[in-house]
Amino acid sequence: MTTSFGAATTSAALKDAKLQIPNFHGLRPAAASSLTRNALPLPSSTRSLVITRAVSTPVQPETTTVKRSKVEIFKEQSNFIRYPLNEDMLTDAPNIGEAATQLIKFHGSYQQYNREERGSRSYSFMIRTKNPCGKVSNQLYLTMDDLADQFGIGTLRLTTRQTFQLHGVLKKDLKTVMGTIIRNMGSTLGACGDLNRNVLAPAAPLVRKDYLLAQETAENIAALLSPQSGFYYDIWVDGEKILSSEPPEVVQARNDNSHGTNFPDSPEPIYGTQFLPRKFKIAVTVPTDNSVDILTNDIGVVVVTDEAGEPQGYNIYVGGGMGRTHRVETTFPRLAEPLGYVPKEDILYAVKAIVVTQRENGRRDDRRYSRMKYLISSWGIEKFRSVVEQYYGKKFEPFRVLPEWEFKSYLGWHEQGDGKLFYGLHVDNGRIGGKMKKTLREVIEKYNLNVRITPNQNIILTDVRSSWKRPITTTLAQAGLLQPRFVDPLNITAMACPAFPLCPLAITEAERGIPDILKRIRAVFDKVGLRYSESVVVRITGCPNGCARPYMAELGLVGDGPNSYQIWLGGNKKQTSLARSFMDKVKLHDLENVLEPLLYYWKQRRQSKESFGDFTNRMGFDKLKEHVEKWEGPVVAPSRHNLKLFADKETYDAMDELAKLQNKSAHQLAMEIIRNYVASNQNGKGE
Fold first, then answer.
1. Whole-prediction pTM value?
2. What is the pLDDT of residues 89-128, one digit of tens each?
3. CATH code linked to domain 492-629
4. CATH no., domain 1-89+101-106+196-407
5. Rounded distance, CA 298 to CA 288, Å?
6. If both were cysteines, with which of 85, 210, 540, 605 could 496 make a disulfide (CB 3.0 to 4.6 Å apart)?
7. Residue 63 — pLDDT band, cuts 50, 70, 90?
8. Could you tell me which of 460, 361, 444 has the C-alpha nearest to residue 412?
């Protein structure tokens, strides 16, 4: 029988308050060891018990059969994410099998095929890099640019988690591409799969203590939770040792088993053979800066400073997540909530304790409910906190008061604080291709620039000298990379996932559809009298999994059928409010019938400076739906002549049918016809 040691110790500790482990700091750094840690009840056998645990699930009675998902069995039998991927990679087939398809995700790749091609499937692979804080060296950027042309589809895609995606790589080229990335200061390890994904942090290269600490913390957390068993390098570079260094505090935190967090004899001390129940997402930021959508992550870490700006510790949020399933109400998006505060030197131990709590208690039978948000929703935050504290070894301090959040795009030119500049560039949907790709490469190569990828699918050029500002601005503008004041405000905050044709989960269009949808929304703005400078946060996904975080949008479109979307309303520009489902199965060609009355109603009834998302929450969905159902077009200011356009109902009905074909009201079409008729006769063109 396999057991879960962490779950057992937690259960015992909660039942028997008399059991207590003495203060033992194992491999903690000296600074942490000198702290007075409030040891919580744990069995005294914690330090000496050595068990190889194949499956990390709560202890069950001997007679109970533990149900596990198929992916859990694949992981258990994989020899730490090697088999059968290692064998499938040696065959001449263009694809890999079911088990290997799940395992290759841990290596940073998804098997895909073009869903628009008929007949035999044309397989390829998407490769996703792992770039904590979105940091990309000059060498790695140029390498990815080359690989996109040589082995991909000629484009690079910037993701909502500050990474690259390379699409269209054939199986026969996978090892070459992976090896090239590894040897050029990059990695794809853990970019996908049931483990900690890329750790977000503000992409702005500001030379400020809080920003520098946030980025350092993100990098340390990424290193702490990186797999250790070598499977990645065994498969892609034949076990070649890639030189890298880790801060000693990361190594010490990983190896520390003072509170029963580790698998003592395992090559994966934190993950074991089963890794985590599902993907795990972490973001780190500073107060006010919500460029990372902090509340959508499993763990959100916020640097806390004193009045002098000196970092003191961290606030921690837990339990965010976007994915859900249509019309299954037991699945839902969720905002993270406050867990507590930890001093600066304890952050790695606190994060590890949270991860282990999810490892030991997250569901492994039904993957729809395996994210940590469901564990916290089931337990409640108080129970979750108490269990985490068993692994952390002390109580969390009260959450520190934070100022209000705001979304920061970092587009345009800014000073870094060290005499150099950085330039944030808007990239529609993060897709870099064509002339834009060629010119961007030329600039990055010519000036030897490093770059950062933002969580909003944009790119930042860093360490720019003042004398380079004008030539860089001019060169990039000629390739379509404009300064933000020349970009439609709707586009600035809009995001979409790739969806068709390669994503196997897509139900309808997202990335390919959003340019036209944004133009149509802008046309509605014009029609109802909203100013060009006004905007709403629009996010579109091809399925309900929420990769582009549509449930945080003021206007979210979530694919729920061919050319059909579920409409979500109620997020805000600060990314602190969860949207709610407003309407199902809205066909693409009917969007204006819903958006026009909503946006007109917002213009007419909003309070001073009230955003669209806040307005929809204040008015309530019942009233909004009533307005949509009764909509007949914008009210035209009454004429001083008080003309009656329609003398009988038959004429009105006929005009109304014609108007609907042009997405107009009967009144609008009639006035348009009359104006055109009068104008033509005045010009002597009447017949």
1. 0.84
2. 999 999 999 999 999 999 999 999 999 998 889 999 999 9
3. 3.30.413.10
4. 3.30.413.10
5. 19
6. 540
7. very low
8. 460
